[in-house]
Amino acid sequence: MAIFITKYQYKIKFSPIVRRFPKKSFFYQKIQEAREYILKFSCFSYTIFIIVLLFPTIMQRFFFSNLPLGKNIVIQEDSFVHQISRVLRSSVGDCIILFNGDGQEYEYRIDSITKKEIGLVFEKSSTNTCDSGVSIRLYQAMPNKYEKIEYILQKWVEVWIQEFVFFRSERSQKLLMNERKIERFREIVREATEQCGANKLPSISFLEEKTPIPEDGQSYVLHTEGKNSKHLRDIGTENSPINIFIGPEGGWSSAEISSFEEKDVQRIHLWERILRTETTGLVVAFFLMQK
Fold first, then answer.
1. Mind giving me the DSSP string for 188-248?
2. According to the CATH classification, is domain 136-289 in 3.40.1280.10?
3. Tell me, what DSSP letter sits at residue 17?
4. Where are the chain's structural domains?
5. CB-based contact 137:242 (threshold 8 Å)
6. What is the dihedral of CA 143, 148, 152, 158, to 10 degrees?
7. Is the dihedral of CA 34, 35, 40, 44 positive or negative?
8. Domain 61-127 part of CATH 3.30.43.10
9. 9-28 pLDDT, tens per residue?
């Protein structure tokens, strides 16, 4: 909701949401009182906006792996300066949170804002408890669209994951990967980590080899056939990391299934419905987080 006031025309314009409230409601009456107060005492020459905050402000979080956090710092990174000054329109005195994956959250107060740098004063630190003690690796066969990769990265980070490994299975469609696209995917992982409250940044890699099977931890392959398959409840979380293999849109080939069986990769069958490749992993990850 915004209230517009100009030097030449003192009028209150309510958003459509506000206009839906009954005129006799408590909320609408308070807005009317605010309008009368503003019209009586305002004599500004510029347009101003008054925003009613119905929820407490959440401090923005930023990940930095190469900064000595815990003391006063000056950041000259262009993207960070742009985010603070232009996107968020922060002011001197506002507080933000910086973190680097060490399990701590570092609260800083903005001390100065210029076109090239942001000065920050360290306030306090606290322990982040959002990350799970269960270590999960996702071995995802390459999907047929870049948008699906972005979705998988974003949603898995929100649930919790330690490492992404994308590889080409026999039925994967060929997607061209270059450093620019990979950097874009890493940026999505970082933004999702900042947004969801996690502390450790998951790693991401793209392999050309087909069906890489790690030697450590316990490995499971998601399959549409229930024969000789286990259920999610049979997965234990004591032996980490947990390696989850998810196939492409066309599913696993018989040769790949045989390879999994030879290397003692446990087969997991969810249920009779066939889930999308970008949906299956989220179901598994959320279930493991609840154990």
1. HHHHHHHHHT--SPPEEEE--SSS---SSSEEEEE-S--TT-B-GGG--SSSSPEEEEE--
2. yes
3. H
4. 1-55, 61-127, 136-289
5. yes
6. 180
7. positive
8. no
9. 444 444 444 445 555 566 56
CA dihedral 152, 157, 163, 169 (to 10 degrees): -10
Burial of 2 (0-12, 13-18, 19+ CB in 10 A): middle
- Burial degree of 262 (CB within 10 A; 0-12, 13-18, 19+): exposed
Rounded to an integer, what is the distance from CA 91 to the centroid of its chain?
Answer: 25
Separation CA 30–CA 102 (nearest Å): 46
Q: Take residue 146 and report the two structure tokens written for it.
A: 């870049």
**Higher pLDDT, residue 57 or 199:** 199
Which structure tokens are listed for 62? 């930023």
Cis amide leading into 241 (omega within 30): yes
For residues 143, 145, 151, 153, the Cα torsion angle rounded to the nearest 10 degrees is 60
pLDDT digits 0-9 by tens, 183-239:
999 999 999 999 988 999 999 999 887 778 888 888 898 887 767 777 777 777 777
